[in-house]
């Protein structure tokens, strides 16, 4: 285990070094990612200037939702770069994946350490700015426990989005090209989480509760942190389901990934 | 000696989508995809003894790579048994691959942006090669492959030949006793090919490494292997000594003669005059019926000759004949 951790940092640092080779263009990319993603929030900000609230959520509160999602998704996008379906599918058909299979290390470890897109820092910083902005506008009575739980929610979100990347990549074993439908869930789903979930129609809410438990990842924890009442009438423990939901989703995705690997070994295409 | 590779009745079939032509065909195959089973490898059996260097020959699509993918554990066969060094390749992947070496000619295992040396060091950590062994091996390989000239160059700036040398070194640093090489000389110039061949010969002869080599460059085989296996359409057409193969198939030899003067009639009994151009003539003869020495004696007894040369058909022709006529022999 210790060996793998050391190796992980070594492999990641290879990625980081080669991406930093052209420093200027690197920072330009970080900056443009930051501004591009920031512009989406800017639009939301302007809308809220007009309407003051969305379903009873004020600017600071929506910024809380958006900041959490942006921050955790960007972190995931960096740490799970290897599982990004758009990068994973050419990785497979170009045969690089076979090269990983020829090395004596767990394959999941190798995929995770095969790619690390540092310029996602731009979006991480953007998420951080929005989140700090939210903290300024809202007055949450923070306690040590709440801060610990906040980090747990953040990590849970990273894990859930990572699980989606994993599913998307696994599917490319069958389809060769990444499936757009998966991207809709990954990118569309996370986009939806930047808004309070009670604005959505029932069927969509059900989908994001029972099929993909996104509602527990961001909306419910936010209700808890911001001290808002639950308009949907879920049990009182709903805000604390995030870590469990994350583990279940990751467990199932991992099983699916393993299943996909077996299929790949059968067809090798 | 027991065999290090045992392959018994190996079959691998793939389900491939049958393409239908035209727009209506594309439409139909979208809603009712029709699949057909294609056997990439059919009932292939062979064995390799420790220390052997065997050439695995076949045209593109013959099933060479499929066989190699099964042997390296990348593919699970449809049926048949494979045992490599007492292990089933596709079970316990990590333990298995730590004992073998593999180079797939058109891809590299090295890190694109990293200097060769750094790549090798990362692989050292991955394969847990003790530092003194690593240094020793590197020194030896460096000597043979002349890595020094580019060891600090990033892989992306290497030439094809340099990349192959670096990859060979990378595949052998953990001292595997069994190595699979898929087209190791593909796309290389003569000098680079020569160096790679010398290295392959070294690790086989001096280190006793068992090597299975696929190629469609016959000079690789002629220069390196005593034994060849020929595969076509997924079936093993020949498995045996290279010499036996040439003996068996090159019944016909050629004799080039340069006569001292232009004779009117140069027909010789038992040989067929293929070509005649002034003083030069080429005869074809079956050496099983008429030996080279007998033919030469007959010519010399009647004519004055300046020069003689007996030519065996090259391996390429022989192999082409085997493919074309599917001369199955075991």
Explain what this protein looks like in three dimensions.
The complex is a heterodimer of chains A (269) and B (330). With 269 residues, chain A is mainly α. Chain A has one domain. Chain A is built from 12 helices and 2 strands. Chain A has helices spanning 2-19, 23-51, 59-79, 85-93, 96-101, 107-112, 121-137, 144-175, 180-192, 202-211, 219-226, 242-267; strands at residues 53-54, 57-58. Chain A has a two-stranded antiparallel ribbon. In chain A, a hairpin with a 2-residue loop joins strand 1 and strand 2 (57-58). The longest helix of chain A is centred in the middle third of the chain and has 32 residues, at 144-175. The two termini of chain A are 31 Å apart. The model of chain A has no long low-confidence stretch (mean pLDDT 92). By secondary structure, chain B is an alpha/beta fold. Chain B has 11 helices and 13 strands. Chain B has helices spanning 22-31, 64-71, 93-97, 116-127, 131-145, 160-172, 190-205, 218-224, 242-249, 292-302, 315-325, and strands spanning 5-17, 35-48, 53-57, 79-84, 100-104, 178-182, 210-215, 227-232, 235-241, 252-259, 272-277, 280-286, 305-311. Chain B has a 6-stranded mixed beta sheet with strand order 5-6-7-3-8-9, with helices on both faces. The longest helix of chain B has 16 residues, at 190-205. Chain B is globular. Chain B starts with a strand and ends in a 5-residue tail after the last helix. The relative contact order of chain B is 0.13. Chain A binds chain B through residues 3, 6-7, 10-11, 14, 17-18, 21, 94-96, 98-99, 101-107, 265-269, and chain B through 14-15, 66, 69, 72-76, 90, 93-95, 97-98, 102, 104, 106-109, 111-114, 118, 122-123, 125-128.
What does the average pLDDT of chain B come to? 88
Count helical runs of chain A: 12
Low-confidence blocks of residues of chain B: none
Shape of chain A: globular
Structural class of chain A: mainly alpha
Secondary-structure element sequence of chain B?
EHEEHEHEHHHEHEHEEHEEEHEH
Distance between the termini of chain A: 31 Å
| Proportion of residues in extended strands of chain B | 25-35%
Count of beta strands of chain B:
13
User: Reading side by side through the largest sheet of chain B, how are the strands ordered?
Assistant: 5-6-7-3-8-9
Widest β-sheet, arrangement of strands of chain A = 1-2
The SSE order of chain A reads: HHEEHHHHHHHHHH
| Total domain modules of chain A | 1
């Amino acid at each position: 285990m210790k060996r793998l951790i050391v190796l992980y940092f070594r492999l990641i640092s290879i990625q980081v070094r080669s991406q930093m080779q052209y420093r200027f263009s690197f920072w330009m990319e970080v900056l443009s990612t930051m501004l591009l993603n920031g512009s989406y929030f800017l639009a939301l900000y302007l809308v809220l200037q007009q309407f003051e609230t969305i379903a009873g959520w004020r600017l600071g509160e929506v910024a809380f939702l958006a900041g959490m999602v942006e921050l955790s998704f960007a972190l995931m996008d960096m740490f799970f770069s290897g599982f990004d379906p758009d990068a994973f599918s050419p990785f497979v058909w170009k045969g690089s994946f076979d090269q990983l299979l020829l090395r004596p290390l767990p394959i999941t470890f190798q995929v995770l350490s095969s790619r690390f897109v540092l310029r996602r820092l731009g979006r991480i910083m953007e998420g951080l700015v929005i989140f700090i902005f939210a903290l300024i506008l809202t007055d949450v009575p923070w306690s040590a426990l709440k801060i610990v739980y906040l980090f747990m929610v953040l990590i849970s979100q990273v894990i859930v989005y990572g699980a989606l990347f994993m599913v998307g990549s696994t599917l490319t074993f069958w389809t060769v090209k990444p499936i757009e439908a998966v991207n809709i869930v990954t990118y569309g789903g996370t986009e939806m989480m930047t808004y309070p979930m009670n604005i959505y129609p029932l069927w969509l809410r059900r989908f994001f509760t029972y099929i993909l438990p996104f509602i527990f990842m961001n909306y419910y924890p936010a209700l808890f942190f911001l001290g808002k009442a639950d308009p949907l009438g879920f049990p009182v423990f709903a805000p604390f389901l995030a870590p469990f939901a994350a583990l279940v989703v990751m467990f199932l995705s991992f099983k699916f990934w393993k299943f996909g690997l077996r299929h790949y070994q059968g067809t090798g295409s | 000696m027991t065999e290090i590779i045992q392959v018994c009745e190996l079959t691998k079939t793939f389900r491939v989508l049958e393409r239908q032509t035209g727009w209506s065909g594309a439409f139909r195959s979208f809603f009712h995809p029709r699949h057909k089973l294609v056997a990439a490898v059919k009932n292939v059996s062979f064995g390799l003894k420790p220390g052997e260097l065997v050439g695995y020959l076949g045209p593109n699509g013959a099933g060479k790579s499929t066989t190699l993918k099964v042997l390296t554990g990348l593919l699970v066969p449809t049926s048949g048994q494979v045992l490599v060094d007492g292990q089933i390749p596709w079970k316990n992947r990590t333990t298995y691959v730590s004992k073998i070496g593999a180079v797939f000619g058109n891809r590299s295992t090295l890190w694109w942006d990293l200097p060769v040396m750094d790549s090798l060091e990362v692989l050292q950590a991955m394969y847990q090669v003790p530092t003194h062994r690593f240094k020793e091996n590197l020194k030896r390989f460096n000597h043979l492959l002349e890595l020094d000239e580019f060891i600090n160059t990033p892989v992306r700036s290497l030439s094809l030949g340099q990349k192959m040398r670096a990859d060979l070194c990378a595949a052998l640093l953990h001292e595997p006793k069994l190595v699979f090489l898929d087209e190791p000389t593909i796309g290389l110039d003569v000098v680079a090919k020569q160096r790679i061949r010398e290295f392959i010969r070294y690790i086989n002869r001096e280190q006793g490494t068992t090597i299975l080599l696929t190629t469609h460059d016959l000079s690789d085989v002629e220069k390196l292997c005593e034994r060849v296996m020929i595969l076509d359409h997924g079936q093993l057409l020949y498995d045996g000594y290279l010499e036996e193969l040439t003996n068996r198939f090159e019944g016909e030899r050629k004799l080039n003669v340069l006569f001292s003067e232009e004779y009117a009639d140069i027909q010789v009994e038992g040989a067929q005059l293929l070509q005649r151009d002034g003083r030069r003539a080429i005869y074809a003869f079956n050496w099983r019926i008429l030996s080279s020495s007998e033919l030469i004696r007959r010519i010399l007894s009647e004519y004055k000759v300046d020069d003689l040369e007996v030519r065996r058909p090259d391996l390429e022709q022989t192999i082409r004949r085997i493919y074309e006529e599917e001369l199955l022999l075991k």
